[in-house]
Amino acid sequence: MPTILGQNQYGKAENRVVKITRDGATHHIKDLNVSVSLSGDMDEVHYSGSNANVLPTDTTKNTVYAFAKEHGIESAEQFGIHLARHFVTSQEPIGTARIRIEEYAWERIEHSGKGAHSFVRKGQETRLTQITYDGESWEVVSGLKDLVVMNSTDSEFWGYVKDKYTTLPEAYDRVLATQVSARWRFNWSDDAQEMPDWEQSYEQVKKDMLQAFAETYSLSLQQTLYQMGARIIDSSGEIDEVRFSLPNKHHFLVDLEPFGLKNDNEVYFAADRPYGLIEATVLRDGCEAKIPVDVTNL
Amino acid sequence: MPTILGQNQYGKAENRVVKITRDGATHHIKDLNVSVSLSGDMDEVHYSGSNANVLPTDTTKNTVYAFAKEHGIESAEQFGIHLARHFVTSQEPIGTARIRIEEYAWERIEHSGKGAHSFVRKGQETRLTQITYDGESWEVVSGLKDLVVMNSTDSEFWGYVKDKYTTLPEAYDRVLATQVSARWRFNWSDDAQEMPDWEQSYEQVKKDMLQAFAETYSLSLQQTLYQMGARIIDSSGEIDEVRFSLPNKHHFLVDLEPFGLKNDNEVYFAADRPYGLIEATVLRDGCEAKIPVDVTNL
Amino acid sequence: MPTILGQNQYGKAENRVVKITRDGATHHIKDLNVSVSLSGDMDEVHYSGSNANVLPTDTTKNTVYAFAKEHGIESAEQFGIHLARHFVTSQEPIGTARIRIEEYAWERIEHSGKGAHSFVRKGQETRLTQITYDGESWEVVSGLKDLVVMNSTDSEFWGYVKDKYTTLPEAYDRVLATQVSARWRFNWSDDAQEMPDWEQSYEQVKKDMLQAFAETYSLSLQQTLYQMGARIIDSSGEIDEVRFSLPNKHHFLVDLEPFGLKNDNEVYFAADRPYGLIEATVLRDGCEAKIPVDVTNL
Amino acid sequence: MPTILGQNQYGKAENRVVKITRDGATHHIKDLNVSVSLSGDMDEVHYSGSNANVLPTDTTKNTVYAFAKEHGIESAEQFGIHLARHFVTSQEPIGTARIRIEEYAWERIEHSGKGAHSFVRKGQETRLTQITYDGESWEVVSGLKDLVVMNSTDSEFWGYVKDKYTTLPEAYDRVLATQVSARWRFNWSDDAQEMPDWEQSYEQVKKDMLQAFAETYSLSLQQTLYQMGARIIDSSGEIDEVRFSLPNKHHFLVDLEPFGLKNDNEVYFAADRPYGLIEATVLRDGCEAKIPVDVTNL
């Protein structure tokens, strides 16, 4: 046979689970989108169609919902760890489980009625995590996407290479805006280690990322990116690696001179495409990079 | 000729304008998506292709950017009023101008650096307005979309009609969630009237809408919708009409019995499609409805 | 009470139904997205939450699936007519039913195996229809969206109004491209009239629209729009009115002079936003316009 | 310093270029979305913000448009090769260039007018390619996305593992539908080798993929996937590896029994989420897998 099977994985993607926890009249919610991906001894289902080693994707979906009841959802990371452990330890043919979760944040609606069971979706960034377990060690990569930030000054861009296709004028005061997509890898990998506080860690990372963006006087988006990553690693001992994918959301100063007006860095056109795309990994010194470089695909 | 021209309009859609206002080291931003639509004496451009009455859509785009400088952007509504008045009064063939604006909200990034020019997009609802001017009177319809809300209890649904295709069991404690799309019409229509405070009005409407959603013990989404509209009109004398389009974002209780588990209103599947869709107008008594009933198209 | 209820409607939106018809080893498919909207005597459900007049949206969903079996799906229009008639005639409180349908086209995969049950989605335009029935007369408005067309020459734009904000140079050879959104209204309104052949009519309209676009030497997108509408009405006696919403998908000639190159109408930048937006109705002479002017909302 | 820079890359993403080639009155078009990504000696721009080694992303955009004129666009692959070679050979700090291209297909509008310069977008799949060059060897991975296919019979699913969370009944005649995302790697890697005919190769791969899907009697989507990959490698000697990401687009048989109807594999509900997701690589025997396993990110 001239062809062979390579890496393969399967599971149920995008299981939307909402968990309500009732503390009397005060309710708490967790709103997740959970994707299960399993791999292992699966050659035969590809070669002959035999499903003898295949736990149906429908079963993986059922397990997500059952586990929301059985284990609750303390955090997306903790929930993913329960799931990954279950699939690897309960099914002999499954060698590795990868659980990806998106989490949508809600906040309470302030009101004068009784009870506390009314919520409005925050709608800012989407929180992410990916749990991978091979029966021996854990890899937890968390992150976020769609966090849009802007500095309206304190950004320059000059001193770059000029070739025959270069027409860009140098800029000494520009808008810097991006839609942050970030992933960070925890150094927790072993059940014997103490687990990080996943919720607290997330809040700290988001805060550091925003503050580093705001406080960096930027000569390039790359420089800002690096500062964001370094701030996270400095501040969060549980994290060894951060990967960013930062589109440079261009805000072009509109030429108002034809109308007899001076545009003193006031009126901008926010462009869609094309956009600069800056991607890089920031590592704790001495650590190995493990997040795939095409990070947008977590 | 067997065919004739009916209603027509044209303009430049989705002009993305970001306006930075510098108050020393403290910056303020307005981030709008402005669409211009003009109509009037435009038969010939359709019949013969003569552009003699046509102000190019490119010019309407330029006007948006020039006006951001000339008039500033105090509010989306005020900005739309400047634009609509300009087109109708400066171009004889143009009888009516309609300006639609989406506004994206930003909040400041808290940090310890100097200056206040760093922002993160809030990302919750998108604010909307539509200004229509025919040279004599004004119609201002503002609104919002993509505001996702949920009550995790205090919602029932029973006592409905049952025909041969009805299988739905009655519910005495269900999740009620929707993604609010709303439009409200101001009774300001004449330059001689005092103009509403557009920014303050918006904040009040949003607050009333959320509180009415939270405080209504719901026997149907229609009832909740009506309470939301009534609260707005009661509270905001400048508004005569509200139109809602509310998808019933179903959260189905997952059947965990096959796994020996009891689902005590804890674990839900958040479904995408199909969804219930509830649409209605709420009016100040004695006022005429003017918002088109397919409100999602503002 | 200071507020009253205005127009209202409700139903289940986006019921995705796929119907397979087996003619031996040859299968046929219809792939629809059906939205039901009902209105009538529904004041109480808004005012008090009483569902005594409410047929649940879940029931309307069940009816869609049951009718796919009971009546088959000869065409989207015919299917919508069955549904609308059912709701209005079987439920006393329901005065009007509006059924909106999107249809996705498939074509057969050519292959050498036996049977004919393999399909690939065409993916070009989405076909649309809206059926409205009030118990007495019918309104059928069909249409399409997302049909992207381009003429790479035979388009000009000049002779337009120039004001102080006009900077656009006149163009004597430009690319004309648009993404057609069209709706057309049939004059069939009464069960006593012979029904049009909905499938054949659609094919004719699409063909006429494309050919009129291609064959019109264009001095403005408005002129092309009118020709497209007039061609349809001339050719299809069953149609009295056409409404178009045509974004002018700008293709800007890239300035290559800085690189010592001449761009002889060869290299274009396809822009996203902003875009011109041209909307108009074309009517059979003597007929009344009934399609809402904000046609994108059908 | 406790942090260091890891892998990084930058460039201008999503340059939309449309190239018209005029062969008298007959025009030809190529419609691409080109993303440039460069990497090399870029530490300083991250550490200090020095742009001394940075060719601006704006320049990479200009180069895309200039090259469309200078080299034409024979195929997306050939165009990407010109670009990648240019960046690596002309800029000393740049070690590797990766060019990703999406291509949108158009077909001619048949009409009776003169000339052949009118087109309608096909709208089926989006064609993809990725060219990577490090100054020595080439990697070309082409592909497609959003090709939606369905078999309305000849698919079964049974004999799978059953655990305590398994409720799925076995199926002996089901609909099998998926939205194909595929990437395939060419074994051309050296300028000394003869280059494949990129256009012809694409047509052959798409045809093989569709036919293998149609002709495989399927016991699992994995089996169908493997047959699709094997068919491509058998048929196209220039390709060594294929990676698929196949969502199982579930079509659930609707239970019509409550309405006294029998659903004889006729009426289906097409579900959105969750969906099964089957991903695998098929390799020419003896070849090494190089396409990243999270292929959806090409």
Description:
Chains A, B, C, D: It catalyses: urate + O2 + H2O = 5-hydroxyisourate + H2O2. Four copies of one chain form a homotetramer. The first copy, chain A, is α+β, with helices and mostly antiparallel strands. Chain A is 22% helix and 38% strand. Chain A is built from five helices and 13 strands. Chain A has helices spanning 43-47, 57-70, 76-90, 198-215, 221-235; strands spanning 3-13, 15-23, 26-40, 94-103, 106-108, 118-121, 126-133, 138-151, 176-186, 239-248, 251-253, 267-270, 275-284. In chain A, the strands form three sheets. In chain A, strands 2-3-4-7-8-9-10-13 form an eight-stranded antiparallel sheet, with helices on one face. In chain A, strand 2 (15-23) and strand 3 form a beta hairpin. Chain A is globular. The model of chain A has no long low-confidence stretch (mean pLDDT 97). Chains in contact: A-B, A-C, A-D, B-C, B-D, C-D. At the A-D interface, strand 1, helix 1, helix 2, helix 5 and strand 10 of A face strand 1, helix 1, helix 2, helix 5 and strand 10 of D.
